[in-house]
Amino acid sequence: MAGINRRSLSEQLYQQIRDDIITGKLKQGEKINMKELQEEYQVSMTPLREAMLKLAQDRYVESFTNQYSRVIEITDDDIRSLLDLCSMYDCYSIERCLALDADTRAELITKLEEALDAQARHIELQNSGTEEFEAVFNNFHSTVYAYSGNPWLLENATQANRLLVLADNNKTKNDYPMEALEEHRRILDAIREGDPDEALKASRYHRSKERERFGV
User: What pTM, to 2 d.p., does this model score?
Assistant: First the structure.
């Protein structure tokens, strides 16, 4: 692979290695040799270490040393736990969002509508880049988390959803994007109507369908 330009070297390395992990080019549990990566990307060790440190912080790799690291392994038990955790985050955030004042809730609804429009365009154009996919499909949940007013929840929920994207590699069906879009629309409709029972029901249904798609 050709060397990476120096616009933001450690960030580019982070994104490239992260993409390789999510797509499965680097397999879960695979040992990563830092010297081999340095030669592949034609970079010095310093930006590579910075990139690997961020990958370790974001839980994409573990056992990070100056010579080796290892791609994290996500088991079926991990997936079940992550989905349960995300469901709790979702329900808490939705309840907080439905308690917002009218103007702020209207602002939230507009942002969620924009998020779903972006999902629909992604599906129509058949974009398949992992970074774009994660950004587009997690934006719906991230927006709800952000409007909950709890920054700790936003940080931890975002991390949990990142790990689910990693676990998603070759586990869910090809029709996932359209199914997720329709499930998100059902959640938004309930938020728009100010119906907490239906919103929570739709949110739990969405995570239960994800469990089915993962086969766990």
Answer: 0.79
